[in-house]
Structure prediction request, 111 residues.
Amino acid sequence: MTHPLFHAQSSVHRFGGKVEDYQPIHDWLDGTKEMFADFRHRALRHHSHGVFEAERLFGVSIRNSSGALIPTRYIALCRARHKAIYAESGTMPSRQKSTRESTKNPPVRSA
Prediction:
């Protein structure tokens, strides 16, 4: 699984600023890895409810170190697209659908 640092670096590439501007949001999105250190952690925040919850927790927007005002939702949505919060149809799944899909076909790991 990818570390939140790499997601923060991706946000810097997309929006400018520094890693520190975005790290708290990505740390929060991946905070559920404490409970499930595999793909299942995505069922808890990687869906539409998680995106809006991030906005409530971190504010409607952040001002990055370059001075740009970036909507928190955009940061979470970019992460959503990268981490398949979006379904193949281009729509964001609900919490219910995300939970159902994350338990349907777990990845197979070789020994």
In short: Strands lie at 61-63, 69-71. The helical segments are 4-15, 19-29, 42-45, 48-58, 72-82, 95-104. Residues 4-99 form one domain.
